[in-house]
Fold this sequence. Notes:
Strand content: 5-15%
Oligomer: single chain
Mean pLDDT: 86
Amino acid sequence: xxxxxxxxxxxxxxxxxxxxxxxxxxxxxxxxxxxxxxxxxxxxxxxxxxxxxxxxxxxxxxxxxxxxxxxxxxxxxxxxxxxxxxxxx
Length: 89
């Protein structure tokens, strides 16, 4: 997992969060409802990454996306990424 915070908290990038939401097929409004966050909080995270959120809100957003089958990947030479779980058959 990406770890950009000095105190060790997971912090995906804005593009990772936007891609994760797009991969789930949810609108900003639907993801906000799913996570219990405000629409503006989700938009702010997608623009600036989870590091612009409070720790609690970042954790809620990441956990909500992970519950929808998103796995955030550690950055490598190509940068950070994500994996989408295959839906059960």
